[in-house]
Design goal:
This is Bacterial Ig domain-containing protein. By secondary structure, this protein is α+β, with helices and mostly antiparallel strands. Helices cover 18% and strands 44% of the residues. It folds into three domains: 1-57; 66-145, Immunoglobulin-like (Sandwich); 152-233, Immunoglobulin-like (Sandwich).
Length: 234
């Protein structure tokens, strides 16, 4: 019985030693050849192959460029784009998928560039590229360059109108603006603008002469103004 136990113990020790050797060989294999193979297996056929994991090459793309808020529309022919990404990387600015200019982020990753806009919609995107050629790109922002003049008309009341009676102190003011998306104020009061650009609002008149001033502003910052004079007599 003692001999049998000794034989079984030797077999267990031998088996443990064998598994230990195999484990060491597996670790060496994975460290030297197998990690990139293992990652590629996990990535699948459509995944990007990792080929430089054992060489120490940088295969990580720069931090995705983050842009400061941009206006929805502007009447300026140039725009400033600011943001941040990885420090000291090449910055490429694209306008409607065309390269507008190149720059470089500073030691803190910040960048600031100015370039010209095309009239109409401008799709703006920033790409960052490091020395190894790794790239990342920002989300696309759209800015409309609108230099078209804005016009506003006052249809009622007419300039020089005289109104009689204290009961007529509140009168409607109506007219039309050339861009329906514009905001309109009448003597500082916001007026509702419909899809055709027509507006109307009621204002309160004072006795004697009154100036009625209509101001319109579109999303790009273009403005228009019109004033008529009316007289209220009690």
């Amino acid at each position: 019985m003692a001999g049998a136990r000794f034989s079984m113990r030797n077999k267990k020790n031998g088996s443990g030693l064998l598994w230990g050797v195999l484990a060491v060989l597996f670790v060496v294999f994975m460290f030297k050849w197998g990690m990139s193979w293992f990652i590629n297996i996990l990535a699948g056929p459509a995944g990007e192959k990792v080929t430089n994991i054992n060489t120490g090459d940088d295969i990580v793309p720069p931090q995705i460029p983050s842009l400061f808020p941009l206006p929805e529309a502007t009447n300026s022919a140039t725009i400033r784009v600011e943001g941040y990404t990885e420090p000291n990387v090449e910055i490429s600015i694209f306008r409607n998928d065309d390269l507008a200019m190149n720059d470089k982020s500073d030691d803190k990753g910040a960048f600031r560039v100015e370039f010209k806009l095309n009239e109409g919609a401008n799709r703006i995107q920033v790409k960052a590229r490091d020395e190894r050629g790794n790239e990342s790109q920002s989300v696309v922002k759209t800015v409309i360059y609108d230099k078209q003049a804005l016009t506003v008309a006052i249809e009622s009341p007419q300039d020089g109108t005289e109104i009689f009676g204290q009961n007529n102190q509140n009168i409607p003011v109506s007219g039309k603006v050339s861009k329906p998306e514009a905001s309109v104020t009448v003597n500082g009061n916001f007026a509702r603008v419909d899809s055709e650009g027509k507006y109307t609002v009621t204002i309160h008149l004072s006795q004697d002469d009154n100036d009625i001033t209509v101001k319109a502003t579109d999303k790009a910052g273009n403005t228009a103004e019109r004033t008529v004079k009316v007289k209220l007599t009690f």
